[in-house]
Amino acid sequence: MDFEYHLPVRLIFGRAKLERLGEIAAGYGRKALLVTGKHSARATGLLDRSLALLEGTGLATVVFDRVEPNPLTTTVHAGAELARAEACDVVIGLGGGSALDTAKGIAFAAVNPGDISEYIFGKPGAGALPIVAVTTTAGTGSEGDSLAVFTNPATKDKKSLKSPFIYPKASIIDPELLTTLSPALIAATGIDVLCHAMEGFIGRRSQPISDAMALQAIALIGRNLPAVYEDPGDVAAWEKVALANTLGGMVIDCAGVALLHGLEHPVSGLLDVTHGQGLAAMLIPFMEFSLEAAAGKFKAIAAALGEDTAGRTDAAAAALSVDAVRRLLERLRLTPRLRDLGVTWEQVEWLSENSLRTMAYALGNNPRAAGREEIKALYLKCL
Ligand SMILES: [Fe+2]
């Protein structure tokens, strides 16, 4: 057995930990760019609370509140320009995965010249401004990884920047901040957590540390995602889901995503759909496609989701994981087909080509290889 594990992120987890934002951010700079979405942080009062906390420690703050869902590379460039013009020396992401990823991209682009798409496709960077993340959803796990996903509006390529420079210096995970989410968003983001853990767990690059975190995340999601979906005010259950979210990010940081994300990114890149809905539309066919190649792993997933796997063959026990996930999706009322998300038969060719071109790393991580024909067949099956 050999593996490496490295996670240089200070994770500050617990109720009311937002109160430490000023003190923590002030440790990394003197002027902050606070990156957030267009509406929710303002509507919930979180933006004002955060600004007051930052002001209380004497940290000057400039707000960049132009982050959209499925953030664009052009938004990153605009934010980086503002960071440079204002001479900001620390970037704070406040929000869900889109805000956190955009904060990471801005921190990176502020010191690496040119189009960030070049770095996304492999050009090495040379540093980034320090990043502080405050997560308000449980989905991407961005607070615990060195990834940030962007869509290039010119090509519709939706792909991760992966760079050691974009690990947040510190991440605040305060489960109380998640209680204002809508059930539909809770379901879509929560399924992303499950998929990160599952894909990293079955992936070819899985390793013992990420496997332990993945199984824990899967079990936490199985038990607690329905609870927060049905009662978004349940902070005790949110603690578990928030932990699963961060664990999921830590899993994909070292083990990577696999075929399902490889299929989904082209969909949300082309059609700007909610990532978790795209995942949900293809989750069951992805599991059925991959099942035999990693039966032992899927058996462990079934057990983590509460299925009784005792005395069964690996194949029979693995199949129970599909049943458990199907029931979870139904309970979350998250059972779209691709056509419900706007995908048409004519787009399958583009989606397949884009997946092969931009998501080769994820496709190569799947325990069962999928080539052009298998990918097309999976899209068609999910239409
Ligand atoms: Fe994801």
From TrEMBL:
Keywords: Oxidoreductase. It comes from the Bacteria. One of its GO terms (molecular function) is alcohol dehydrogenase (NAD+) activity. Pfam families: ADH_Fe_C, Fe-ADH. Residues 8-175 form the Alcohol dehydrogenase iron-type/glycerol dehydrogenase GldA domain. Residues 187-381 form the Fe-containing alcohol dehydrogenase-like C-terminal domain. This is Alcohol dehydrogenase class IV. It comes from Hydrogenispora ethanolica. The lineage of its organism: Bacteria, Bacillati, Bacillota, Hydrogenispora.
